[in-house]
Each structure stands twice: as structure tokens, then as C-alpha cells.
Amino acid sequence: MKGVIGILGGMGPAATVDFMARLLAATPAQRDEDHYRILVDCNPHVPNRNRAAAGEASPPGPVLAGMARGLERQGATLLAMPCNAAHAYTADIRAAVSIPFVSMIEETGAALAARHPEARRVGLLAVDGTLAAGLYQPYLPEPVLLPAEAQAHFMALIYRIKAGDTSAKARAEMAAFAATLVDAGAQAVVAGCTEVPLVLDGGDVAAPLLSTTDILVAATLALASAG
Amino acid sequence: MKGVIGILGGMGPAATVDFMARLLAATPAQRDEDHYRILVDCNPHVPNRNRAAAGEASPPGPVLAGMARGLERQGATLLAMPCNAAHAYTADIRAAVSIPFVSMIEETGAALAARHPEARRVGLLAVDGTLAAGLYQPYLPEPVLLPAEAQAHFMALIYRIKAGDTSAKARAEMAAFAATLVDAGAQAVVAGCTEVPLVLDGGDVAAPLLSTTDILVAATLALASAG
Asked: How far is B81 from chain A (nearest CA, A)?
């Protein structure tokens, strides 16, 4: 129990709190002191990843690099970032620090290969920035994506979740997006946005659902326990 | 929306995550960027406050002062700490930094005076460390406390909550402790431990319940919005 976990957060804030809650729940702990120390920079003022991908906002890389340096200076021994789209700036983060950065993209790729080696057609629920940066493409032989119109509605739903809507209606809409991918032949679905698990559980999808949040939790705890 | 909120956390970790979730829910925000930046040092290795009060652990003051300095260095413009017992070390924290520290004890005292000026007999659910340090006594004309044996059972329940038990049984037990105070004449009950609201809501108590967590949320946001 030696690692100090640094979290590059705030993208969005609720997803960061969800990640923290899942970290705690997944830590074998009976007492406060059994938990890891967690340093969090929950910074909702990082330039918008989707707008940056569209050339409409300044690149988030330098801001994320500064947050990473600050967390390292505070004593973090490893870093994690519960936002898929922001992983487009992984190189900026890794170049800024000397501690490991656990990539939820790479870890999800590894989890896919380990859990579903037979799956060729894999569904991906992800925001425009993640798709534009091509983050998951290296891991998906035949990605199954939402049609353009549905993707626009999916983005609107993500922004509603960011505004606090985790209603039954929001849950039903997210389940319908996942069903669209399964109907299109997806043998597994990647919840490739940390807002998705706020309104979608495995039981809501008729194919295996990979929560990138939970995958990042497991990988972060594995590294933290190692050192 | 200028303040950067620093949180001295980890006492316990779930209470810190609960505080963060309530901060987000209470922030008027439609988009990520409407939220405050929050820097968190969730440090579950702060010496145990109850054991320190009993002379069985080293004083947490220096550790808390170091955490406060670290958060200030990171850019926090105000500090809050969602742990009542740790407020016994408020002077150490305030002496360590030049930014304001919002005391949940002082804020709860102010809320009591404002909301229940007529209440003389006020119930207090608090851990041994909080009681031993006499943190709430200045604000409670006639404190109504649990009898010694019930207090021991209350402490055991708090440690169960810290171990992750937020079951219906835990909820019922906490409601019973609050009922004991009301039956003893409490005109209001202070949930003077941040683990309490994890299993107790206002609707569970037959007298007004003051959640020190929610009071700290409101005071923190008021100060953050001011600058």
C-alpha cells in the first residue's frame, strides 16, 4: 500500500467523483488507513476536448501537463485520468513527468484482447474528440460506431449528463445507443467515455460491456499496489 | 467562479467523496467549466483522530498542516476539511497557510444559531475524538449526547461505515441513535461526523437534522464564489 495515486480530473467533475468512488470500492480496505492516498486535481477548466479536436478551443495538452507536474510535485507516484478524450494528449502528460501515467485507452485495449479475443466487431460509445483522435481504432479490428445522426444525439446526452441528468430517461437513452451498436453486430461494447457508466451498467446491454472507468480503476490499483 | 477549493480529505475517504459529490450537486452548473476547480489531498494515513485524542496515536496537527501547505502551493485559494474530529487541529492548519480555512464546526454553530435560535437542547452524534476535544460544546447550550454504552456502539458503527457498510441495517442503527437523542429531549440533532450522512437523511429523524457535511458545502461554495 505504498503508491500515491494522482488523478487528472474534472473532465467532467462527476466522472472524477465516480472514478474515486469506484477506486475506494475496489480497494481491499477495512479501515481508513488501508486506502491509498489520492491526490486529485479536479480541473473543469481544461479546454474542451471536443472543441479542441474541432479546432475551436486551445489544445488541452499544456494544461494537462501542468496538472501532471503539480500532482507529481505533491507526491503522486503514478497518474490516472478518468477522461477518454483527454487521452489524445497522453504524450504531453508523459513528457511532463517522471512517474508512470496509466492510459485507460491502452488498458482497455489490453482488457479487450484478454477478455474477448474472438470479438472482431466491437461497439464504441465515445465522444467526438475521442473518435476524431482515433484513440481506440488501433484496438478495434472492426469498430461499430453510431450513425452520424445518433452520434449527435449521443453528444447531446453526454452534455446533459455533465449538467447533472442521470434520470431514468437518460439511462434509457444510453441503453438505446448501446442497443443500436449490438443490433449492428457488436460482439462487445466499450463504454469509451467516463460519463457513460454514470447512467449505464452491464445489465443494460445485451452484449459484454467494458467500462473504461472500471478498467482504469483496476489498472491503477494494480500499479499502486506494486509500488 | 474564481475560487480554487482545497480539500483536506481522507478522514475517511468515502466521506471525502461524499463531500465532493455534494459540492458538485450544490454548484449552479450546466457545463464542466461552470464548476470550481477542486484540489484534493485524500490522505487516509493522517493519524487516527480518536486514538490521538486518547493519547494512543501521534498528533495529526503537523500532517494536516503539511497537507494544507501542499494544497496552497498547488493553487488552492480556500480550504475545507470534511472531518469533524480533525477540526481539533484547526489552529495548526490556520497557522500553516495564508488562505482561509472554512471551519465546519464554526459554520455549524452559525447555522444552529440562525436556523434554531430557540433550541436549547441539541443532540450531537459525534465520535469520541470530537467529544474529547469539546469542539461543539461552545455552540450547544445543553448538549444531548448518547449514553456511554450507546456511544461505544455508535463508534463501532462509524468504523463499519468506514469499512464500506452502508446497508439498510447500518441505516436503521444510525436512525436509532438519532432517535435516542430525540427521545432524550433534543430539539435538533447535529450529524457531527461526516460518516453519519452516508447512512442518515433528514427524513430518518423526528427532529431537524443538521448535516455538518452540507453546512460545510454551503459555506465553502459561498466563500469560493466570493473570490
From this structure: 14
Min distance A150 CA to chain B CA atoms (Å)? 21
Which chain A positions have a beta carbon within 8 Å of B43's beta carbon? 37
Catalytic residue among A52, A193, A200, A223: A193
Which fold does the domain A105-211 belong to in CATH?
Rossmann fold (3.40.50)
What is the ipTM score, two decimals?
Answer: 0.95
CATH topology for B105-212?
Rossmann fold (3.40.50)
Confidence of residue B1 (pLDDT cuts 50, 70, 90): low
Q: How many residues does chain A have?
A: 227
Are B186 and B123 spatial neighbours (Cβ–Cβ below 8 Å)? yes
- Spell out the domain ranges in chain B: 4-102+214-226, 105-212
Q: In the CATH hierarchy, which fold is given to the domain comprising A4-103+214-226?
A: Rossmann fold (3.40.50)
The minimal CB distance from B38 to the residues A30, A42, A163 is found for A42
- Cβ-defined contact of B42 to A40 (cutoff 8 Å): yes
pLDDT digits (tens, 9 = 90+) for B17-64: 999 999 999 999 999 999 999 999 999 999 988 888 888 989 999 999
Mean pLDDT of A125-146: 95
Interface test with A, best of B17, B18, B166 (most A CBs within 10 A): B17
Q: What is the CATH number of domain B4-102+214-226?
A: 3.40.50.1860
